[in-house]
Specification:
By secondary structure, this protein is of the alpha+beta class. Helices cover 19% and strands 31% of the residues. The chain contains 11 helices and 49 strands. The strands form 11 sheets. The chain has an 8-stranded antiparallel beta sheet. A 6-stranded antiparallel beta sheet has the order 3-13-14-20-19-16, with no helix packed on it. Belongs to the glycosyl hydrolase 31 family. Keywords: Glycosidase, Hydrolase. Residues 586-667 form the Glycosyl hydrolase family 31 C-terminal domain. Residues 260-574 form the Glycoside hydrolase family 31 TIM barrel domain.
């Protein structure tokens, strides 16, 4: 939201009371409280009829400092509020000199300047990373009596801003106006389903605004050297999070707001859906499933979209008996084929649903101020919304989900959650402005908790569209409604990379696009991208997404990349474990892995899948692709070609290839199974040791099906000698050297040829030495 008219003027009707002078700084049990004046105090009379801002500094975690700016402190906080980790503050140090008061938290120092001009500066060591200057913190009123709180933090020369949720606009957010307000706007506009009030910059720090309501950002778009954010009301709280790397910033941010759960291994396989408005019954579903099997296409999850329920009755959780007369038997038959089952739901209850009367009678639906149930015809005729602030409503909704899980359902696609009105009343009295974005958190939590309760820890996964800060705890999320063209494929990737830089570990998208039907060449290129994403789903709107509906080659491409992904599961599930433990996205923007390479700061058409694999999807019908390899040796995973990085490359690929490179100093684990994602990853695992530099060491971990580390292998090179040590399962494995020359001899292993060592590993601790020619 803009308040000024260019650099010199203020917009008509706007009054800005900005912090200009420090009155006093006091130590408190939580940190520091500063009182700042919005007009200079020249004498006692100047203290009358004046505005003060109270600024509270505290630190819940080392390297994280909270700043709360308050004008009037008598406002009732009706909630909701983000659930944040609350530390003891024992790590905080306070220092004071004649010119400044300093709060120290881990590697972050906050310096509050004394004297006649107000300023707050954030330092990493001796480096100033950002700050709030003269008049940046402000209490603002407009001519209609509305009040706002504003902060402006400095953006340095050459500094780039990323994140703010799943945004489909330009990857670098500098110059953009971003409103944190969930909307159902597809993937082709500035609107977003997943708005997260957190950004991270190329300087290696992040800023999280702890406000669930509308946060309006001007990222260098009102004042070009400022990241401005504002909210309506009388207070504003934000946290500055120091890295010093982007990965460490995100790790600390997710320690504050919640780590992603670990999805079960089966979710990483290929999902196939009925699509949205297509006609289907059990025979249709079986034709899809059998068609996949007949063509040797591994399939792991089948999803029933909206019309598994009767039209006009969404959501009633009842199978449409006209087309599914025996749902229990059908699900049993599908599961006997090795499939997991997902069904579509949302939190909207159409008036023709039997649940509507139950919800109305028991007070489970959101109401208007006069006590009527809030209703709309948008989406479902006469629909109401479940009030998840009511514990009884949550249990009512959860009860129907439990019945479906007992029937054989393994996951729920939690669609919608963005169209939440603000002229309503909630059971617990929550502020409807704050509930607009926060509603999705309560919705997804109820569903996720049911799955975890019924299926167990690390067995729960939703397929969610909407989210807010903290929503990363309930994976998986997908990108929403995109068109079936290369432009939407690219915008989807931008959204996924931005979401990954907002603390979300797992992300998917509709392979081939949702709206319309893609040409075969788009579908085949999207297959490679989709099956080299954390989660992979074939889904559309008005047409089926079975590969043979496109052409015969699409079938072969589907088979090739599905089997490739299954074979990569030992590596991918360790990447998933890192997402769960550290908060790092499985699909990482290049700047996240290569923060010192300035070329990587703006790349948005390629990504790292974990820390070892570089993926550059192809967005051209003719197969041309231009991509960048950072410095170092890179080996193409599919053809074994090794090239030197540090430059751009332009190539042409067929549909069975794309730039897919293994980073130097990688120990890449691949599995012995290529037909499913959930198997014993350590049984027969193969490690590729890629371009290990002299003096370098690398480690790979293979996890079990529950995500616990089962086998750890470390390789270290000194000259022509590579020392390998393995701890864990005691199962046999194979290690192949890549781009290291040939093997001259091996000591301590069972078998070796010129490039490969086979280890029986009868004990749980194995070490051997490779001498290279």
């Amino acid at each position: 939201m803009k308040f000024t008219d260019g650099l010199w003027l203020v917009r008509d009707g706007i009054n800005i009371n900005g912090a200009v002078q420090n009155y006093v700084v006091e130590k408190t049990s939580e940190g520091l409280t500063a009182i700042t004046q919005t007009t200079p105090i020249t004498g006692r009379a100047a203290t009358l009829n004046s505005t003060l801002l109270t600024v509270k500094f505290h630190s819940p975690l080392p390297g994280v400092v909270g700043v709360k700016i308050i004008h009037n402190d008598g406002v009732i906080d009706r909630g909701p509020a983000f659930e944040l980790t609350k530390g003891t503050g024992d790590h905080v140090q306070i220092e004071e000199t004649d010119s400044e008061t300093v709060l120290i938290s881990g590697g972050l120092r906050v310096v509050i300047r004394k004297g006649e001009q107000w300023a707050v500066d954030f330092y990493r060591g001796d480096e100033r990373i950002t700050g709030s200057g003269y008049k940046s913190m402000a209490y603002i009123t407009d001519q209609d009596g509305n009040t706002f709180m504003r902060e402006e933090l400095d953006i340095g020369v050459g500094e780039f801003v990323y994140g703010l949720g799943e945004r489909f606009t330009a990857f670098v957010k500098n110059g953009q106006v971003v409103d944190i307000w969930n909307k159902d706007g597809g993937t082709s506009s500035e609107q977003a389903y997943k708005n997260i009030p957190f950004y991270v910059t190329s300087k290696g720090y992040g800023v999280f605004v702890n406000q669930p309501e509308l946060v309006s950002y001007e990222i260098g778009s009102e004042k070009v050297k400022k990241a401005q954010f504002s909210v309506a009301g009388e207070s504003l709280e934000y946290f500055v999070i120091e890295g010093p790397t982007i990965k460490e910033v995100i790790s600390k941010y997710t320690s504050l707001t919640g780590k992603p759960a670990l999805p079960p291994a089966w979710t990483f396989g290929l999902w196939l859906t009925t699509s949205f408005t297509t006609d289907y019954d059990e025979a249709t579903v079986n034709s899809f499933v059998e068609g996949m099997a007949e063509r040797d296409l591994p399939l792991h999850v089948f999803h029933f979209d909206c019309f598994w329920m009767r039209e006009y009755q969404w959501t009633d959780f009842q199978w449409d008996s006209r087309v599914f007369p025996d749902p229990v038997g059908m699900l049993k038959r599908l599961k006997e084929k090795g499939l997991k089952i997902c069904v579509w739901i949302n939190s909207y209850i159409g008036q023709r649903s039997p649940l509507f009367e139950e919800g109305k009678k028991n007070g489970y639906l959101i109401k208007k101020a006069n006590g009527d149930v809030y209703q709309t015809d948008l989406w479902q005729a006469g629909m109401g919304l479940v009030d998840f602030t009511n514990p009884a409503a949550c249990e009512w909704y959860a009860g129907y989900l439990r019945d479906l899980v007992d029937m054989g359902v393994d996951s729920f696609k939690t669609d919608f959650g963005e169209r939440i009105p603000t002229d309503v009343v909630y059971f617990d009295g929550s502020d409807p402005q704050k509930m607009h974005n926060y509603y999705t958190q309560l919705y997804n939590k109820v569903v996720f908790d049911v799955l975890e309760e019924k299926l167990g820890k690390n067995e729960a996964a939703v397929f969610a569209r909407s989210a807010t800060a903290g929503g990363q705890q309930f994976p998986v999320h997908w990108g929403g409604d995109c068109y079936a063209d290369y432009e939407s494929m690219a915008e989807s990737l931008r959204g996924g990379l931005s979401l990954g830089l907002s603390g979300f570990g797992f992300w998917s998208h509709d392979i081939g696009g949702f709206e319309n039907t893609a040409p075969a060449h788009v579908f085949k290129r999207w297959l490679a991208f989709g099956l080299l994403s954390s989660h992979s789903r074939l889904h559309g709107s008005t047409s089926y997404r079975v590969p043979w509906a496109y052409d015969d080659e699409a079938v072969d491409v589907t088979r090739f990349f599905t089997k490739l992904k299954c074979s990569l599961m030992p590596y991918l599930y360790d990447v998933a474990g890192q997402a769960h433990e550290e908060g790092w996205a499985s699909m990482r923007a290049m700047v996240m892995e290569f923060p010192e390479d300035p070329t990587c700061e703006v790349l948005d058409r390629q990504y790292m899948l974990g820390d070892s694999l570089l993926v550059a999807p192809i967005f051209q019908e003719n197969g041309e692709v231009k991509y960048y390899l950072p410095a170092g040796r890179w080996t193409h995973l599919l053809n074994g070609e090794t090239v030197q990085g540090g430059s751009w490359r332009k190539e042409t690929h067929d549909f069975f290839s794309l730039p897919l490179f293994v980073r130097q100093n990688s120990l890449l684990a691949t599995g012995s199974v290529d037909t499913r994602p959930d198997y014993d990853f350590a049984d027969g695992v193969k490690f590729g040791l890629y371009s290990l530099e002299d003096g370098a060491a690398t480690t790979a971990t293979v996890r079990d099906i529950k995500g616990a580390p089962e086998l750890t292998v470390k390789a270290e090179r000194k000259g022509n000698t590579v020392t390998v040590a393995a701890e864990g399962s005691g199962k046999a494995f194979t290690l192949a050297v890549k781009d290291l020359g040939t093997i001259a001899s091996v000591e301590g292993a069972d078998q070796a040829d010129e490039t490969t060592v086979k280890v029986n590993a009868g004990s749980k601790s194995v070490s051997f030495t490779i001498t290279l020619k």
